[in-house]
Write a structure and sequence with these properties.
The protein is of the alpha/beta class and 242 residues long. It contains twelve helices and eight strands. It has helices at residues 3-9, 13-16, 19-27, 31-37, 42-52, 69-76, 96-105, 122-131, 148-157, 174-183, 200-203, 225-233, and strands at residues 57-59, 84-86, 111-113, 137-139, 163-165, 189-191, 215-217, 237-239. Helix 6 runs parallel beside helix 7 (96-105), helix 7 runs parallel beside helix 8 and helix 9 runs parallel beside helix 10 (174-183). It comes from Stylophora pistillata (Smooth cauliflower coral). Keywords: Ubl conjugation pathway.
């Protein structure tokens, strides 16, 4: 390699390109590569920090085996404009503390998915319900530690919520689903499959004319055929098979 080639290979592109070009380059990379760029130099770190403030969607599900609790905590400090956050199966890093950070730092969130994350708690959901007022879609499937308290907080505070998945959340019962039916009238899709304590008592509340529910998944719930027929007559698609 001659002197000219060595000079080119040693260039810090973040010092050559304007910010908008650097952001376009970062936008072509996955989240792991973006984080690695932030370790190249102080200039790159500053550029990555500013770039993260413009990011609208982050999907960590493909990196669930390498994302750490502290790594997620660091990223959440700079994602105030985030609209969509996928953390499915990222159970090592989705803790109650990080849920608090998501709630306080990502107040513009519209979509949050944390399925199969055992660190999701009622207290964390209460924080999300308090700060994330624009939330429209939430997936809590197989978050085994949550109970009625967390779902009730969502029903009472998240008026924009349209889609909620709580399948295999065994602490969810008629108590919270009844609140959802009465408080979250804009809800269009609900999955309570394998919530064994959800029965006719709460599901019948979705027959109310004010409810806008379109799709209901109830596999594994104790819901009578008669009520299912009434729900379907109202125009609700009832999925009782998977």
């Amino acid at each position: 390699m001659d002197a000219k080639e060595r000079g080119i290979s040693g260039l810090d592109l973040s010092q050559i390109f304007p910010t908008e070009i650097t952001f376009k380059i970062l936008g072509l990379l996955d989240v792991v590569a973006v984080c690695q760029c932030g370790q190249l130099s102080r200039k790159w770190r500053d550029q990555v920090t500013e770039y993260l403030r413009t990011v609208l969607c982050l999907d960590f599900a493909p990196y669930e085996s390498i994302l750490t609790e502290n790594g997620l905590k660091h990223l959440l400090m700079y994602t105030s404009n985030l609209r969509v956050l996928h953390l499915d199966s990222c159970w090592p890093c989705v803790t109650e503390e990080n849920l608090f950070l998501i709630a306080k730092n990502c107040k513009k969130l519209s979509v949050l998915t944390t399925s199969r994350c055992k660190g999701v708690t009622d207290a964390g959901l209460e924080a999300v319900s308090r700060y994330c007022k624009e939330l429209t879609e939430l997936d809590l499937s197989s978050c085994f530690t949550i109970s009625d308290a967390g779902v009730i907080a969502l029903g009472e505070r998240c008026s924009a919520l349209r889609e909620l998945h709580v399948s295999s959340c065994y602490g969810v019962t008629d108590k919270s689903i009844g609140v959802l039916a009465k408080q979250s009238c804009g809800l269009t899709e609900l999955d309570v499959s394998w919530c064994f304590y959800v029965t006719d008592q709460s599901i019948k509340e979705f027959l109310s004319p004010s409810c806008k529910l379109e799709l209901l998944r109830i596999k594994g719930c104790t819901v009578s055929e008669g009520l299912i027929s009434k729900l379907m007559a109202k125009g609700i698609v009832v999925n009782n098979f998977f």
